[in-house]
Amino acid sequence: MNDGIFQRAELMLGLETMERIARQRVIIFGVGGVGSWCAEGLVRSGISQLTLVDNDCVCLSNVNRQLMATTKTLGRSKVEALREHLLEINPAAQITALQKTYCAETSAEFQLESYDYIIDAIDSLEHKCNLILHATSLDARFFSSMGAALKLNPMSVQVGEFWKVKGCPLARALRKRFKRMQKFPRRKFQCVFSEERQENQYPAEANGTLCHVTATFGFVLSGLVIQDICR
């Protein structure tokens, strides 16, 4: 059945590349509006060894933008609901669901040195900062999502090196944090970002977010991984 699932991908990429894609070990931190769609893009492209990390459960406000969030999955672990969905795409995939928080204290638990690709789709500034520092000290390829909220135009989504990202408040906050800590990423890494800036229509603790933008962020992240393997 797997041959049939990936027939169209193999037509373009070839058997050797598809086999190489299947051998890669990928871990995604954060499977919300960006990370869940990244996982979808990876599994549908042939990635079969994937670890999902997120400590949250599905809530009603997730339904507008997160792949596995529906009225039927409310209250379920995000990583478990997403794992179930991904296995419906490729039942032979090895999908590991970890309902955990990545932070400085738990970083060793994830054995990041065993992965080929590390994807950052974390919202928390502190945890994102820690993951960037850790991931860039390893041999694994690392890609990161900057802020996807308050965006309307999916065609504004771009890819750029972290220190050259413009117009993104999250990237700016991360750079300030690194400078204040006097700790910096060990190497350059690519980010998905957008310079667009909309405003909430009403006062709120959270920022407004739309599926067609967050999904674009996620699919671009998955595309970066697949393109890198193809090269």
Task: Explain what you see.
- α2 crosses α3 and α4 crosses α8.
- The chain is α/β, with parallel strands linked by helices.
- The protein is built from eight helices and seven strands.
- 41% of the residues are buried.
- α5 (78-89) links the parallel β2 (49-53) and β3 (94-98).
- The model has no long low-confidence stretch (mean pLDDT 97).
- The protein has a single domain, classed as NAD(P)-binding Rossmann-like Domain (Rossmann fold, 3-Layer(aba) Sandwich), CATH 3.40.50.720.
- The protein has a seven-stranded mixed sheet with strand order 3-2-1-4-5-7-6, with helices on both faces.
- The two termini are 27 Å apart.
Which strand-content bin applies to the residues?
A: 5-15%
Q: Helical residue percent?
A: 25-40%
Broad CATH class? Alpha Beta
Question: Distance between termini?
Answer: 27 Å
